[in-house]
Design a protein that fits this description.
The structure holds two protein chains of two kinds.
Chain A (H helix, E strand, L loop, with lengths): L4 E3 L2 E4 L5 E6 L6 E7 L5 E8 L2 E4 L8 E4 L6 E5 L8 E8 L10 E2 L3 E5 L1
Parallel strand pairs in A: 2-11
Antiparallel strand pairs in A: 1-3, 3-8, 4-5, 4-9, 5-6, 7-8, 9-10, 9-11
Chain B lengths: L3 E4 L2 E5 L4 E7 L6 E7 L5 E8 L4 E4 L2 E6 L4 E6 L8 E8 L5 E3 L3 E6 L1
Parallel strand pairs in B: 2-11
Antiparallel strand pairs in B: 1-3, 3-8, 4-5, 4-9, 6-7, 7-8, 9-10, 9-11
The chains are: A mainly beta, B mainly beta.
Chain lengths: 116, 111
């Protein structure tokens, strides 16, 4: 039973480029959460998605960031026109179909984004 | 707005000691509280999850308690080992299931 998979594990981008981060949840999980860990800071919630729906995006920056979780395929976190301040570790977590309120969230290994 | 605080920020102990990590939160309306472990450069591993109706959970040498009324949780580690060295994170589950994390306690267990 494979866990949460994220790719790439490391991503280097130059300022102004696009970063695309992928997350495949645990098989059978339909709830996906994205978190960001800035250097020397704690983990911060970004967005919560179910299949084809954004449920809570209260932690997403208003510009340049978007997320999707299509019916088929992985969840994607997209960052357009990256800036140095976007350098961070981005973690994806998934939970079973009952939702994350009472269930453990299973975390992926993260994607470490470095913007030059 | 829910805020989660962990004390201490860092802790260094000799092998074999029992230790307690503290977590406090400002809003008692929680669904659950989780303790995670994070190793450098790695993801998070869930250690214990306490539902809002529970008072404690145990797994091996770990015991976590929850006191909603006072907004506190503790993680007790018995007979610490060098392999326990990591950052320990406390997280509260909010109304949509999103987790609100504390800043973590970095633990070093010296042989």
């Amino acid at each position: 039973n494979a866990g949460v998979m994220q790719n790439p594990r490391h991503l280097v981008r130059r300022r102004g480029q696009e970063a695309r981060l992928r997350c495949s949840p645990v098989k059978g999980h339909s709830h996906v959460y994205w978190y960001r860990q800035l250097p020397e800071e704690g983990l911060k919630f970004m967005v919560y998605l179910q299949k084809e729906n954004i449920i809570d995006e209260s932690g997403m920056p208003k510009e340049r960031f978007s997320a999707e979780f299509p019916k088929e395929g992985p969840s994607i976190l997209r960052i357009q026109q990256v800036v140095r301040g976007d350098s961070a570790a981005y973690f994806c977590a998934s939970s079973p179909s009952t939702g994350g309120k009472k269930e453990t969230q299973y975390f992926g290994p993260g994607t470490r984004l470095l913007v030059l | 707005k829910q805020e989660v605080t962990q004390i201490p920020a860092a802790l260094s102990v000799p092998e074999g000691e029992n230790l307690v990590l503290n977590c406090s939160f400002t809003d008692s309306a929680i669904y659950n509280l989780q303790w995670f472990r994070q190793d450098p450069g790695k993801g998070l591993t869930s250690l214990l999850l306490i539902q809002s109706s529970q008072r404690e959970q145990t797994s091996g040498r770990l015991n976590a308690s929850l006191d909603k009324s006072s907004g506190r949780s503790t993680l007790y580690i018995a007979a610490s080992q060098p392999g326990d060295s990591a950052t320990y994170l406390c997280a509260i589950s909010g109304n949509t299931g999103k987790l609100i994390f504390g800043q973590g306690t970095t633990l070093q267990v010296k042989p």
